[in-house]
Amino acid sequence: MPPMSLPPQPWPTGLADQVEPLIARVLAPNGSPFTFTGTQTYLVGSEDGLAVIDPGPDDPVHLAALDSAIAGRSVLAILCTHTHRDHSPAAAPLAAITGAPIIGCAALHIESDAPRVDAPFDKSYAPDRVLADGEQISGPGWTLTAVATPGHTSNHLCYALEETDALFTGDHVMAWSTSVVVPPDGDMADYMASLDKLYNRADRIYYPAHGPAVTKPRQLVRGMIGHRLMRERQIVKLLGEQPRSIAALVPVMYKGVAEYLWPAAAQSVHAHLLDLERRGIARLDGDIWRPAPKR
């Protein structure tokens, strides 16, 4: 699923947009082809106490905007969906400003020499408390439940706002693009299982970390599952025609997609191939993938 084109600038960075009575959104100034218009930080709660979800990059302009949006209110928790550097580095400085604990996903840092097409991991992230699937935190008039959604990263969490049936989906589900799944930490089988998990929920609306809100969540998730299954079938068909490297698969599979997106596509193709290998459908010889022998 190719990403939609970027909306015209200027983007409304630094402004507190009240999207629902319990939810405000502040856009960080880190727009790029892989973050859309930038990371969206969400303030959840009321005058009596807030949670901050995905504080974003450690950028003084964004931190000042968050401080202004918080406006002296008590911050009870700072939560991160995962620890890519466009999501979590502002957690520590925001905790220093507000005195709030950092709660949510586990720390994770993967060392790799491979070129990255997503943000690298945040080495500085140090949570005060890690939430397991189904654990909750609450404040005046709000309750957030952790929903474990590994795949994009192994430590990815979504957060469900129980009072309004809203789900903060981080990078797991976004309307503007499919999530990049980058091995070795990103895992296609986990990603697909996490999509199934969300499809079986009854959330009213999704608020992703990048791009617009998703007002028809199950419809979008169903389409994303279908898209990934289509890519899997495409790989199996192409390997059946002739063994190929990832570099040879991508131009055929992503014909018509801008070439600057091919490195990201190659990572997801790699994730699909690793999943097919585990399932005994494909095998690797050197840098060439071919169908696995039938048992």
From TrEMBL:
InterPro entries named among the record's database cross-references:
LACTB2_WH, Metallo-B-lactamas, RibonucZ/Hydroxyglut_hydro, Sec-metab_biosynth-thioest, WH-like_DNA-bd_sf
Which Pfam families does the entry mention? Lactamase_B, WHD_BLACT
Q: Entry's SUPFAM superfamilies? A: Metallo-hydrolase/oxidoreductase
User: Which residues belong to any copy of the Metallo-beta-lactamase domain?
Assistant: 38-210
For this protein, the record's PANTHER family field holds: ENDORIBONUCLEASE LACTB2
Quote the protein name from its UniProt record.
MBL fold metallo-hydrolase
Taxonomy, top ranks, is:
Bacteria, Pseudomonadati, Pseudomonadota, Alphaproteobacteria, Sphingomonadales
